Amino acid sequence: MDEYTFTENFNNQGRPSKTYLCYEVERLDGDATIPLDEYKGFVRNKGLDQPEKPCHAELYFLGKIRSWNLDRNQHYRLTCFISWSPCYDCAQKLTTFLKENRHISLHILASRIYTNNHFGCHQSGLCELQAAGARITIMTFEDFKHCWETFVDHKGKPFQPWEGLNVKSQALCAELQAILKTQQN
DNA sequence: ATTTTCAAT
Fold this sequence. Notes:
Elements: H1 3-10, E1 20-29, E2 32-44, H2 57-68, E3 75-84, H3 88-100, E4 104-112, H4 122-131, E5 135-138, H5 141-151, H6 165-182
Parallel strand pairs: 3-4, 4-5
Antiparallel strand pairs: 1-2, 1-3
Helix pairs in contact: 3-4
This protein binds one DNA strand through residues 14-20, 44-48, 54-58, 83-84, 86-87, 90, 112-117.
């Protein structure tokens, strides 16, 4: 991913009409975590501006996971950094996937919380996803930095945080915690 | 075309 794409999409104060999702996979073996570099990359959604059928980024990600045919006798942790948190529909599909694939753990780190929904309530989607075992958090400075170093063609340049990164991240984190807490009661 | 949250208006 080039620098511009990363900054344009992951800046937590922006609101681009597209979504990028960066993913990486580790195999868990007792206390050890073994990174699987062959399963690392990013996808973006297909929007109305493209010839293909519109499709949210998460569904491409699910397709990729399925194509890997990860060994059901092993345990894996998938980490995905997504510029918009999953909508209700995608959250449901991820929930179903996790229930059917107990050998896979999922950690979702979102830059921003997506709230534009037509077919349901994004809050309950995220809650169900959490209840299915997913860990859902908001990206912090360290997460943006990790993404930069892992997925961006940074040409040796260090990650440069934008103005207000931490303040926004903290605000979104509080918002997400309120969402995830409300529905547990 | 404008405003814009994986578009919607």
